[in-house]
Design a protein that fits this description.
The protein is 42% helix and 22% strand. With 189 residues, the protein is α/β, with parallel strands linked by helices. Strands 2-7-1-8-9 form a five-stranded parallel sheet, with helices on both faces. A four-stranded mixed sheet has the order 4-3-6-5. Bound molecules: adenosine-5'-diphosphate and guanosine-5'-monophosphate. Adenosine-5'-diphosphate binds at residues 12, 14-20, 133, 136-137, 168, 171, 174. Guanosine-5'-monophosphate binds at residues 14, 37, 41, 72, 74, 76, 81-83, 101-103, 105-106.
Length: 189
């Protein structure tokens, strides 16, 4: 039997730089796969179905939950997001390591599920910087940004549940810190 892959859970308030950092980690570790979540959020400019997310409607999302196909799911900023149970279980059984980019509610569900995992929380340097990044990203309305900032405070309070906390201030430094964690945890150091 192949040895089990490692499960990495990465959470952060929206805009802290999780997508940017995870992209760098995936580029560096070819053996890592990204778990593509399902969401009822509409696609942003440049996002592709089946690459960034599986975009779906609320009825279909409910069916996935009712059929037990979600390993975890949560309502985040008024949309539903969830992780495919089959993708995670099959990858780990095949010995493949995977990254889940999920919110704190989902992260805590997986921590409570008994699955072995390595968890990383990405922090912005401050709420002011977070607001600037969300505004500069230019993908969300002012109202959506306000909601994300409100949520950020609650999420940051839960960072102590995570194995590692990485502050994304200078991008290059944060990439190096994060990659070092992956290197050590995957036994490649
Ligand atoms: P998240 O996935 O956590 O919502 P993104 O990766 O989309 O966040 O980053 C939010 C915005 O901040 C993007 O425009 C990104 O280019 C920018 N960004 C990410 N990390 C940094 C950093 N260390 N310094 C400055 N800007 C950053
Ligand atoms: P965004 O809309 O900016 O892509 O993501 C918003 C939030 O939803 C982020 O915190 C992201 O990590 C989280 N998210 C994305 N996919 C999932 C998922 O499958 N489950 C959970 N619980 N959260 C997710």
């Amino acid at each position: 039997m192949a040895s089990q892959g490692k499960l990495f859970v990465v959470s952060a308030p929206s805009g802290a730089g999780k997508t940017t950092l995870i992209r760098e980690v995936l580029a560096r570790f070819g053996e890592l796969s990204y778990s593509i979540s399902h969401t009822t959020r509409p696609p942003r400019k440049g996002e592709t179905h089946g690459k960034d997310y599986f975009f779906t409607d609320e009825d279909r999302f409910r069916d996935l939950i009712d059929d037990g196909l979600m390993l975890e799911w949560a309502r985040v900023h008024e949309n539903y997001y969830g992780t495919s149970r089959a993708f995670v279980e099959e990858s780990l059984e095949k010995g493949k390591s995977i990254i889940l980019d999920i919110d704190v509610q989902g992260g805590r569900q997986i921590m409570d599920s008994g699955l072995a995992l390595v968890s990383v929380f990405i922090m912005p340097p401050s709420l002011e910087v977070l607001e600037k990044r969300l505004t500069a990203r230019n993908t969300d309305s002012e109202e959506v940004i306000r909601k994300r900032l409100d949520n950020a405070r609650d999420e940051m309070e839960q960072r102590s549940f995570y194995d590692h906390v990485v502050v994304n201030d200078l991008l290059d430094e944060a990439v190096e810190t994060l990659c070092r964690i992956f290197e050590v945890e995957m036994g490649a150091a």
